[in-house]
Amino acid sequence: MWLQAVVNGVALGWLYIIMALGLTWILSIMGILQLAHGEVYMIGAYVVYYLCSSLGLNVYLSILISMVVMAAFGIFLERFLFRARADRDPVLTPIVVSTGLSLIMTSGAVAGFGLYEKSVPRLLYGSIRIFGGAVPKDRLLAIAFSAAALLLLFFFLKRSRWGQAIMASAQNREGALLRGINPNQMAMISMAIGCALAALAGALAGSILMLQPYMGSQPMLKGLVIIVLGGLGSLAGAFVGGMLLGLIDGVIPVIFGPAAAAVAPLIVVILILLIRPTGMFGHE
Amino acid sequence: MSKKGRRNGFALGAAAVLALLMPAILAHNEYLISVLILILLNVLMVSSLRTIALLREISLGHVGFGLIGSYGSALFMMKGGLSFWPALLASGLLSAAVALALGYPFLRVKGIYFSILTLLTAETFRLVAFYWRGLTGGTMGLVGIPAPGPIALPVVGIVSFDETGAYYYLTLVTFAVCMAALYLTERSHLGFTWRAIKNGEEISQSVGINVIGYKVVNFAIASFFAGIAGSLFAHYQRSLSADFTSRFGVVTSIYLVVYMVVGGQGSFLGPAIGTIVLTVISEWARPMKEYQPMIIGAIAILVVLFMPGGLVGLSNLVKRKGRGPGGARGT
Hints:
heterodimer, A: mainly alpha, two-stranded antiparallel sheet, 2 strands, globular, B: mainly alpha, two-stranded antiparallel ribbon, 4 strands, 3% strand, disordered C terminus
């Protein structure tokens, strides 16, 4: 019982971390709050569903295709909707644009896919027995996929030239510009990576939970909590924030009930902000 | 009185007469009057949201303070034994008090962080209301909220507010008082200090302005009016639910920001124009069911990308063209 709850919690926690990673990169490199990130996650999941059920493709291949499709969509969004211009308010415009986008995508999904819940085929069937409890294999695989995505992203950012350029752009936009790094290109790459990660999270969630047009708002909110907890633009922060949130979500409802569980993340966020206004791992 | 002042006074008078006659114009159609009440409440919400925007901070959780006003007011009447008017005031003050308490940690962070925090706060309030069965009825919702008690007026006699037409007038009067208060606040010394902080936070601090203090007061004032709007909503609906799809969901706060920006946050009238235009469009699009949010979303994107000053900016643009160079410049 306990073990299964923990594994479920950790699997969901990882999905939220993947969401938070995309959000936090888009936020720190482009300086925008992408409120439609949850809808990218939702569409990513539906793409996998239709590739599997209508075209009969393999689940893993479908997930890969969905990630590529959503990355392309991200590039489109950056180029045509989010690119900063001097006559536009840098904070407000992206908030409204992404809100509008979120309304369009959600109502498009209701119209196109219907309100009935659908599900992506399971990644793996059966369960493993650990410490006398049954743990479904697909949850473990979801955790493994998410962890692999995090590691890949980590090495991309730390080791590759592109990754270094993105890091530089996130830390100091003007400085990076002086070194010949094109901020628009960086924005495009981070948007593509962010959307691909959202699609991955959506596809994994689709095999664990159900698909429906409103599925994106919950992970979106969790992702935002994680970013604030961990600090802007920090991989380590997203990881620790995600684990902390998973812990809160897993433990508090059992001990103190759902109302306390709802308030707990906010209280933790406020406490952290009082001590460190930039979040646990954030920099100025 | 200047020419412009006289023109504004005339426009205000015309708007007031129109608002008073609206129920008759709509042939006392119950549904349309309920839309009208909702427009008034939303204009009040968006205008108070704009008060925060005077500091160039965007709250994405304004409806959270409306929720406190709604539940606060309902419970003050149901469990606290207050009558409507004290409950209305108390609910606004409760909202403001919560904002005061949260303001200090929240307003130390800026920009997008503030927006995210307010969004999470509103969602937290909603979840608490959703799960706190003992106080708010939890998932079942809060039912049996009393309507404001009847009052005796000199000419019309006794008015009871459990029917829509009378409630519209009650809302209209409260709305007018609140809007006047918001307008005067914006033109007061307080409002000018907010503008100073918006234009240069560090320089304001260096001339001795308590920046955080003024920001917290701003947040509390805006939340007070959100609380009042929430209270009016509660006693109109007579039942409340904190479901995800209810009025208190994240979506509402986000809609409020859209109303503000589409109208034009640079002008005091922007929120009213944005709210009215978008509400009318979404009522018109109601038969299109699932495509309705899509239309609002598309309008929001088009306006914000191609009309940076919002709809108000558009009217200023027309005026400027008509009068040639040197005409009034809005925002």
